[in-house]
Amino acid sequence: MREARGFTLLELLIVMVIIGILASIAIPSYMDHVARGKIAQGVEALAEAKVRMEQVFNSQRTYKPGGNCPDMSPYFTDLPFTVAHTPACTDTTFTLRITGDSAKGMSGYWYSINESGEKASVTPSSSANCWLMSKSQSSC
Description:
A five-stranded antiparallel sheet has the order 1-2-3-4-5, with helices on one face. The chain is of the alpha+beta class. Helix content is 37%, strand content 16%. The protein has one helix at 9-60, and strands at 81-85, 95-100, 110-114, 119-122, 127-128. It has one domain. The N and C termini lie far apart (67 Å). The chain contains one helix and five strands.
């Protein structure tokens, strides 16, 4: 009888199928985990920008000193989001909105907060009147 050496083609195919199944589970889970981390960074910066807007109002008695909305983009440097006043701020109101950068894998995400602290968000799979912290989260 010959001594068997190496693996048979069937054994290699079984290993490849197992690796494929594990990858099909692990890769989407990993991508969701990465998105949750980016979302956490974005909403943290958005909360900081709201605090800065309140500081402007407390010192100037307007959200629009000098006729312009304050620039909040420095709080979003190196983040996968861009920030804008949507709609433009007034003397007594503002709404800050961050929008996901598609080049950084956050297409379809946006988060907002206004002077009253009302929050809203949209992810590729849902929307809510609060900040959704993952793509698959359905409510807050």
